[in-house]
Structure formats: C-alpha cells, structure tokens
Design goal:
This protein is of the alpha/beta class and about 475 residues long. It contains 16 helices and 17 strands. Helix 2 packs across helix 3 and helix 15 packs antiparallel against helix 16. Bound molecules: adenosine monophosphate and zinc ion.
Length: about 475
C-alpha cells in the first residue's frame, strides 16, 4: 500500500482511492508565458515519478493537467497584470502565439527529461463554458456575489477556509501580504475572483461573453472545473508545487466543494522548492535557469532528473553547479557499471524478489526516491548474475526513467568502436557529448582532423592555434594513442 504525506492532514496516510485499483490524478500545469525554469521542472519530474510509482504499484492512473493560458495574474492574489499579457507585450506577439510557443517549449523540456505527457492536457481557454457553468452554480448556491463588475467567491460562507495551514492564517491573508494591494470591492479579505469583467487593463486580449459581462476567468476556477469535468466528482490525488497550496489550492477546494456539495479530494501532494543560494528560483526574481542552459553547458537533461530524484520531494533542494557535477559523475559511473554487464544467461526470479521488494517499499514510503536509487545500487552490488541485474535495472527504470539500458548500450558501442579503431591503428574522433548538435560536431571533427594532420607534419603552431580555437568553442579534448575524444 502506497503511503503519501498529505498536506491536508499533515501525516503520512495510506493512499486509498475512491475506486479500488484506479486512481484519478490532477496536476497543476504551467503558466505558458515564459520558459519553465528548472525549479518548475523539479515539480514536474517528481509528479512524473509519482505517477509511474503508482502505476508500478498496480494502480490504473488517469491523469489530467491544465495549461494556464489565461487568468493567472502576476500576484496569486488576483492583483497585478495577467502573466500571459505580460509575456505577449515583452515579445511583441499575441497572447495565443505566446501560449503556443511556450506550451511547445514546455513539452520539449518534458520529453528531454523523460516526463510522460498526462493522458489529458487541457488548455484553460478550451473550457470557458465549464468555468461559466461552475460560477453560475456557485452564484445560485449563494457562495458567490458580484461586486464592481467582478464575480467573487464568498469565503465567509465556509466553515473552514485555511485548510492546509491554520497557524499561518494571519500571514497568508490576501491583502496583508507585502506588495499586494487590497481590492476594496471584496466583502472579505480572503474572497477571490471567479470571473473578471473589470480589470485594471482594458487591453486584455482574450475575453468571452458571460452572464456577468464580457470578461475572463480567474486562475483558480480553471483547475477546479477542468479537474471535475475531466476526472469526475471525486478526485483521488491533487499535485503541485508547495507555493500552490495557498491561495491556489485553498481556493480550488473552497469552490469545488461548494459546487459539488461534498468533499472533493482527500490527498494533496506538494513538491517543495528548488532554491539557489540567493533564494527560491522564480521567473520574476533571482536566478532563472532553464533546461536549455544546462544543455548548453554540456549537461545531459537526464543528469538533472537524476539530481532531482536523489533528494526527497518534501525537502527544499538547493541547486549548485557542484551538485549537478556530482550527479553527472554518479550517473556516468552508473551507466558504465550497467554497460559492463553481460546480458547472456537466465534471469533468477527468486533471487531478484527481495531487491524488487525493497525498491517498491522505498517508493511506497512517501515516494522515497533516494532510497529507491539505493535499491538500484544494491542490485549492481548483489551477487546475482548479470542477466538478472539487467532485468532489475530495466524494471526499476520504468519508474526512474533514466534511460539506463539505452545509455549503457550507447556507451558499450562507443567503447567497442574505440577498441576496434585502436586495434586497426586508425585515427578516430570520438564525441562524448550525447545529442550534440550535428553541424557543431562536424565542425569540431574537421578541426580535430586538421590538427592531427598538422601534428603529423610537425606544424605545432597550427596545431596549437586549432586547440585554442576549440577551447574558445567550449570544447575539451583528450588525446589518446590512436585518436582524440572530445566533449
Ligand atoms: P507556474 O508555471 O508558475 O504556474 O508553475 C508551475 C509549477 O512549478 C507549479 O506547480 C509551481 O508550484 C511550481 N514551482 C514554481 N517555482 C518552483 C520552484 N522554485 N521549485 C519547484 N517548483 C516550483
Ligand atoms: Zn491549479
């Protein structure tokens, strides 16, 4: 039985789903006004591991994620500018062009990180009718009111509003947080917007007709309506980054339960932040690192995935280049160990059972991914034959998604090629960089062959010139007897 820490109860609970054997899972998706930073990607990596761990434990998971392409303001508390509009203005494009571009960029990052695309991916702008229906019902039931042209949720109608963290209620109240202006049209400080018709910016590009006037939805209503309409009235598991707990998830619970008239979701999974030494990684402040930047610096995206799964999702994680280098070295060694295994032989099912069970127990213990990685090392250290080890690595990688078998195969082929070349005395140029840009790799190869020729002719000045040029290009080279390898 999977046990997960539940942000609602503050305890590790048995994960019991509404329908046995099945699980509905909702994850808040990206606001597509900019590239995802590696902090956002930490959250998506851990949610991906969670989904795969649930499947590994035998559950049939139905997962949905929204794409926020309207309604998320620069402050989570309904104030400031629409983030999408801000992105469009920054790049002199339309909101829809921005949404399309950054949605595609987001999924490209996910692919590189082996993050599976959820079964249902729903852009907010495709479900406006559902939002209007939900707001209409909330008004009919007396949970909402119109004021100053906007529709607000009336939090005073709830028995309990701060469902996640009662102790911090004072600090969290909308309107008292630093830098957030208070909206005087609200009846209560904690009320929030369901539908905007009056906004500070008249140039809002995306507007729809509604019973309350032309306008656009609030951010929170998106996730409630998309989840309820796609996954049904009883949601098993809701996920997001820890900053989403308040006000976003708090408001989602308020409006979903008021709309449905019963409890909606009992299990809340929050991933803690990726920080830098100067604080939380965010798009508006501090260092903003993207996956492409890591790639430009020569890191395999899966090294970042490995870096993330080595720490627990409920601890904040400090990013450092040293830490990433450590993960790169460990990942390289792991792949090399797997590459050295001989696939011939029979699989020892009985011998592999205890290792499989410790891997499963690590995941079932509140998704203890670092312990799951230890179970993987234990396989390699065990006395089992190579074929059994390979079969366990492949099995564990269904959850870890580190491409361990594929990378080991590539490493094995490269080593074979190098050995063959050495034996035949042929000069070889080996590229150690996975997925290197083809044109760049061809240019490096030409320079390295020219350098080899220069050295043969004892033109050391030209050979040095070429080496300097390669250094400027960020290329590191290692010479060997019969060739040169570069990264
Ligand atoms: P956004 O695109 O801003 O809506 O955020 C996408 C997801 O990333 C949300 O689940 C956030 O809670 C999460 N998130 C934002 N900043 C961080 C961070 N520094 N570390 C981890 N997750 C984050
Ligand atoms: Zn959401």
């Amino acid at each position: 039985m999977m046990k997960l820490y539940n942000s609602l109860t503050h305890t590790k609970d048995d994960f019991i789903t509404h329908e046995p054997g099945k699980c509905t899972m909702y994850t808040c998706g990206p606001t597509v006004y900019h590239f995802a930073h590696i902090g956002n990607l930490r959250t998506y990596i851990m949610e991906d591991v969670l989904e795969k761990a649930l499947r590994y434990s035998g559950l049939d998971v139905k997962r949905c994620m929204n794409i926020t392409d309207v309604g998320h303001l620069t402050s989570d508390a309904d104030t400031g500018e629409d983030k999408m509009l801000k992105g469009a203005r920054r790049e002199h494009k339309t909101v829809m062009q921005i949404a399309e571009f950054y949605t595609e960029a987001f999924f490209k990052d996910c692919k590189k990180l082996n993050i599976s695309v959820p079964e249902f991916v729903v852009p907010a702008t495709s479900r406006i009718d559902d939002f209007i229906e939900m707001v209409t019902v909330l008004l009919e039931k007396g949970y909402a009111y119109t004021a100053n042209g906007n529709v607000y949720f009336d939090t005073s109608r709830l028995g309990e509003y701060y469902v996640f963290n009662k102790h911090e209620a004072e600090n969290l109240e909308i309107g008292v947080r630093e830098g957030v202006e208070e909206d005087t049209a609200k009846k209560n400080k904690t009320d929030f917007v369901l539908w905007f018709t009056k906004s500070k910016f008249e140039d809002q590009e995306l507007k729809w007709d509604s019973p309350w006037g032309t306008g656009y939805p609030g951010w929170h209503i998106e996730c409630s309506a998309i989840s309820v309409k796609t996954l049904g009235e009883y949601l098993d598991l809701h996920c997001g980054g820890i900053d989403n707990a308040f006000p976003h998830h708090t408001n989602e619970i308020a409006q979903s339960e008021a709309y449905l008239g019963h409890k909606w979701c009992s299990q809340w999974f929050h991933v803690h932040h990726l920080n830098t030494n100067s604080g939380k990684m965010s798009k508006s402040s501090g260092e903003f690192l993207t996956l492409s930047l890591l790639e430009d610096k020569g890191y395999d995206p899966l090294v970042y995935r490995f870096f993330c799964i080595q720490s627990h999702y409920r601890k904040s994680l400090v990013f450092s280049w040293e830490g990433l280098d450590g993960a790169a070295a460990a990942y390289g060694k792991l792949v090399a160990k797997i590459a050295a295994l001989d696939p011939a032989g029979d699989i020892d099912e009985e011998g592999s059972a205890p290792l499989k069970s410790s891997f499963a127990s690590a995941l079932e213990n509140d998704l203890n991914t670092s312990l799951a990685v230890t179970a993987l090392y234990d396989v390699l250290k065990s006395g089992l034959n190579d074929a059994t080890k390979l079969s366990l690595v492949s099995d564990f990688d269904k959850v870890l998604s580190l491409d361990l078998i594929k990378k080991a195969e590539t490493a094995r082929k490269a080593a074979e090629k190098k050995a063959q070349a050495e034996a035949s005395d042929e000069f070889t140029v080996t590229c150690n960089r996975e997925n290197a840009d083809e044109a760049f790799a061809a240019a490096v190869r030409d320079l390295l062959l020219e350098r080899a020729g220069a050295k043969k002719k004892k033109d050391f000045a030209r050979a040095d010139e070429i080496r300097n040029r390669l250094t400027e290009m960020g290329v590191t080279i290692v010479d060997s007897k019969n060739g040169v390898s570069w990264s």
